[in-house]
Amino acid sequence: MALGLVAAFGALAGGLAAPAHAAAPETPERVSEFSFTSAEGDPIGMGRSETYTPDNATFEVYGNKTYVRVGLNTGPGDWWDVTLGAPQGEELEPRVHREAERHPFQTGRSPGLSVGGEGRGCNEIWGSFELNQYETDAEGNPLLVDASFEQRCEAADAPPLKGRILWQAYPLSYTYESDPDDPVGQGMSGTHYGATSLFKLQGRTTEGIVFDVSGKREDWSVEFLLHAAGPLEVGHTYRTTDDITSDDPTLMVSGNGRACSGATGTFTVTKLEADPDGAITAVAADYEQKCGTGVMRGTLHYYA
Known about the structure:
Elements: H1 3-15, E1 31-38, E2 49-52, E3 58-63, E4 67-75, E5 78-85, E6 95-102, E7 112-117, E8 125-136, E9 142-153, E10 160-169, E11 172-178, E12 189-192, E13 197-204, E14 208-215, E15 218-225, E16 237-240, E17 250-255, E18 264-274, E19 280-291, E20 294-302
Parallel strand pairs: 6-7
Antiparallel strand pairs: 1-2, 1-10, 3-4, 4-5, 5-7, 6-8, 8-9, 9-10, 11-12, 11-20, 13-14, 14-15, 15-17, 16-18, 18-19, 19-20
């Protein structure tokens, strides 16, 4: 996290008056979706690609702290089933689960995976899954699921079935791309999810945000300060200045030891939620930072 923001938050809190009114925010929404892409020769997906949501399927979820099963009724006689399980004796936690075997028959320390549908299933499974988010209540009942998977049926070199399963999950991710002459991104691009990365947010609707990401050998920070341009409004595109002494908003995207002291750009909030005191609890935003002739663009989702 950039140290400058912590001090700036304190200064801004005493220097900004609350506005008479603010635009009604577009609040975060939970997402439920099952999508897959099947390679030719895969006996489960039959070479198809499909997407199911509550608009065209009914979701049923079972499980506990060690496994979760998401079933979908997609029409008369049509049923899909996705099961993700922790290794024996462990609890299911967000991370990359490799060397998965058929659940619940996995051996040793292998995690469990089983995806079937329309009466088709695998006797043996080679696969992996990335569990981005998984929460249960005190009794172990699933509250939300966010995962992606790859499954091969009957042989390690069989055609793959790849997919994503979400149930009652708020989006949590960071995606970026950069020009080759951008000194911060240096031409790189990437996407971070909860299976590999940790996310942290600090911010207030009258002051701005700091969004930090750490994972996959990368550390990124997106620091947006409103200064006198508050409050934060959904749908508004803020044009940022490189003059930190002005009343205009500033944007500083830094990462892996690199930053730009003279950056300009834009910052657009697409979803926002805050507590009664103005502390931001969820946010989604797009940014564009220009440093010299190079540009870095990104999208952040923090439970929104």
